[in-house]
Specification:
The protein contains eight helices and four strands. It is α+β, with helices and mostly antiparallel strands.
Length: 252
């Protein structure tokens, strides 16, 4: 017994029941026959399932094109939850995991060092500042003269608007590079702590934002490389801050 038509009919019946809920999108996108509960369907092959694009989680009208058992094309419309509902579930999960990460970082900052002593000593402010300044100068060069390269890696199209934003971002990266280069040999101070803390917030914020853009389909998987670098830099400065505090306590 072929149970595929039976399963498809059951799915559409559930979708039709969901259509009784209040909805803001009630316009049909085609001349498809509206599905009614109990309507017999003789589906031999499904051709396409389409629905109007929306960023809101709501009940919407979708169309199904198929070939029936007689070999004729047919089309019906039915009510269902939009795909944005699934996307919002991912966003909720991301926020939850980000909150867990923030709590973990708080414990890292207040607890003992998680790295071996030799490796922790290597994560000094001078080392991280030198690396960060070189990275910022490199990003300033790329965003200023070759922004389409990074945008292509992120699967984002280049335009005049994105070019303006890229060139302005290049200046900001150059400014960060200068600050980290000039302060690389600075002793522990309020200014150095302010720069480190601000950069930590920026790194984790950019990492969370980039991961969210990838989940929402606004950027390709190439942006995950930037997310990884930003998260690693943030953790590096957190650990360097821990080492500085521990050394200060030891000397004291």
């Amino acid at each position: 017994m072929n149970i595929r038509p039976f399963l498809l009919t059951s799915t559409l019946a559930c979708a039709a029941s969901a259509g009784l809920a209040p909805a803001t999108d009630t316009s049909a996108t085609s001349d498809a026959l509206p599905y009614q509960y109990g309507m017999p369907l003789h589906v031999a092959k499904v051709l396409s399932l389409t629905e109007p694009p929306t960023l809101k989680c709501k009940v919407t009208t979708a169309d199904m094109k198929y070939i029936d058992n007689t070999g004729k094309p047919a089309q019906i419309s039915y009510r269902k939850l939009s795909n944005a509902c699934r996307r919002q579930n991912w966003q909720t999960l991301l926020i939850f995991r980000f909150a867990i990460g923030v709590e973990w970082l708080r414990r890292v900052c207040s607890g003992p060092s998680l790295l071996p002593q030799g490796l922790a000593m290597q994560l000094s402010f001078r080392t991280l500042s030198s690396f960060t300044s070189i990275l910022c100068f490199l990003l300033a060069l790329v965003w200023g003269f070759f922004p389409e390269v990074l945008l292509a890696i992120w699967s984002i199209g280049y335009s005049e608007g994105t070019g303006v934003v890229a060139r302005r971002s290049a200046v900001l990266f150059a400014a960060l590079g200068v600050m980290f280069y000039l302060l690389r040999n600075a002793p522990p101070s309020v200014a150095r702590s302010a720069l480190s803390n601000g950069f930590i917030v920026g790194c984790f914020g950019l990492a969370a934002l980039g991961f969210g853009e990838w989940l929402n389909g606004h950027a390709g998987p190439g942006i995950l490389l930037a997310v990884l670098v930003e998260f690693a830099l943030g953790l590096g400065f957190v650990q360097a801050r821990r080492v500085t505090v521990e050394l200060g306590k030891t000397v004291g």
